[in-house]
Amino acid sequence: MEEKEKVYEKLNTMGVKYEIINHPAVYTIEELDNLGISKKAEVCKNLFVRDAKGKKHYLIVLCKDKKANLAELANQIGSTKLSFASSERLDKYLGLKKGAVSPLGIINNFTKDVIVVFDKDLVGKENLGVHPNDNTTTVVITFNDLNRVITENGNIVKYVNI
């Protein structure tokens, strides 16, 4: 089963309403903007990072136009120095490839050890745009439903000011 089909199945099982926008493969926020996706939804930027020892992994979800200061984020979440995780770690913990990082990747985190960190500005948004673990599609979903998918998976969620 394709990654996005797994996501749709999970969302359907949970009774989550969502809209699917198919598009050419995109690897950057700019490419999504050029397709006009950000007119339909608040597109999320997603960063997969690890602590200094590589023992803790975080998926940071923020508004597409914001820049994440990793030192500041480490302070807010009580972590040692943060750095970007390798492609191997991304695959191991979320079953994702570079370019398809998404908070919905959490459904592949069977050990439930990735901590999801949301920018507080996303809380309550009605139309968030995230990949369904595939960068040829964007799913539009409410923040509350996205948060429910993550918490019902058993992962810890934290909120920060970015």
Condensed summary:
With 162 residues, the chain is an alpha/beta fold.
The secondary-structure class comes to alpha/beta
Top-tier CATH class: Alpha Beta
Strand percentage? 15-25%
**CATH fold category name:** YbaK protein
Order of helices and strands: HEHEEHEHEEEHE
What is the correct CATH architecture? Alpha-Beta Complex
Please indicate the count of domains.
Answer: 1
Cα-based radius of gyration, to the nearest Å: 14 Å
Distance between the termini: 36 Å
For the biggest sheet, the summary is:
8 strands, mixed
Number of helices: 5
State the shape.
Answer: globular
For the residues shown, what is the average pLDDT?
Answer: 94
Percent helix range: 25-40%
Low-confidence stretches: none
The counted number of beta strands is 8
Structure description:
The protein has 162 residues and is α/β, with parallel strands linked by helices. It has one domain: YbaK protein (Alpha-Beta Complex), CATH 3.90.960.10. The chain is 28% helix and 25% strand. The chain has five helices and eight strands. The chain has helices at residues 3-14, 29-34, 70-77, 87-94, 143-153, and strands at 19-22, 42-50, 57-63, 83-84, 114-119, 128-130, 137-141, 157-160. The mean pLDDT is 94.
